[in-house]
Amino acid sequence: MKRIYELRYLLLFLCLIIIVGVELKHLESSSAETVSESSSTDEFSYYMDRVDAVFSDLQCFPVVKEEAEGIYPVSYDDSWGAERTYGGERTHEGCDLMAVSNERGKYKVCSMTDGVVKNIGWLEQGGWRIGIESDSGIYYYYAHLDSYEKAFEKGERVVAGQILGRMGDSGYGKEPGTKGNFAVHLHVGIYITDLTGKERAINPYWYLKQLEI
Ligand SMILES: [Zn+2]
């Protein structure tokens, strides 16, 4: 009789261990779910905040209207992610505003935002480029210029609508000043910093469409 009781207690004890073990495992996995859910919510709000910051930064279209016609002298499509081969296989990380008349130095390029000059000078792919960082930390990149409006210094403050230079076809060459390898256009890039601190391009197309209005 005593042996039967001992066996019953042993079985009960084993059952308790199993139940507690299963419960602990369940608690562990549900807290892991909560952590990943909250981190994806944080990530979502972070990127929503960045998207809002771009909207707040942008004040004007990056090409000045032609006085006579009163229209922006460019045409453009959503070429985000299109294939590019110069400098290796890559995808297009911006939007190309193609000049209606293929003349270098004719159309004025202006800053879409307030900010400071972060980068200026020659880039093999971007040609004569200028990069403006807004106060909210978004980076706006203008490439393939024919010339600069003036000798900008890094750290210099610019305001939205300020003329940065003239639209051109510079770039696609190691030699500074290489021109003529493609049609005259302005390449516009918008870069945000992701949660790991890495720079990421976002598609400027719909922002530009909005600015046109
Ligand atoms: Zn481009």
Give an account of the 3D structure.
This protein is of the alpha+beta class. Helix content is 30%, strand content 28%. It folds into 2 domains: 1-57; 59-212, Glucose Permease (Domain IIA), CATH 2.70.70. The longest helix has 56 residues, at 2-57. The protein is globular. Mean pLDDT is 87; it is low at 10-30. Zinc ion is lined by residues 92, 94, 96, 187.
Throw out a few tags for this protein:
two-stranded antiparallel ribbon; 213 residues; 30% helix; 2 helices; 2 domains; Glucose Permease (Domain IIA); alpha+beta; 12 strands; binds zinc ion; ten-stranded antiparallel beta sheet
SSE topology:
Blueprint: H1 2-57, E1 74-75, E2 83-84, E3 90-91, E4 95-99, E5 108-110, E6 115-123, E7 127-133, E8 139-148, E9 157-158, E10 163-167, E11 185-193, E12 199-202, H2 205-212
Antiparallel strand pairs: 1-4, 2-3, 4-11, 5-10, 6-7, 6-9, 7-8, 8-10, 8-11, 11-12
Bound molecules: zinc ion.
Short précis:
The chain has 213 residues and is of the alpha+beta class. The protein contains two helices and twelve strands, in the order H-E-E-E-E-E-E-E-E-E-E-E-E-H. The chain folds into two domains: 1-57; 59-212, Glucose Permease (Domain IIA).
What are the bound molecules? zinc ion
Task: Tell me the major beta sheet.
Answer: 10 strands, antiparallel
Please tally the helical runs, counting DSSP H or I stretches of 4 or more residues. Answer: 2
Number of separate strands: 12
Indicate the proportion of strand residues: 25-35%
Shape: globular
Looking at this structure, what is the CATH superfamily of the largest domain? Glucose Permease (Domain IIA)
CATH topology of the largest domain: Glucose Permease (Domain IIA)
CATH class category label of the largest domain: Mainly Beta
What distance separates the N and C termini?
92 Å
> SS-based structural class?
alpha+beta
Mean pLDDT: 87
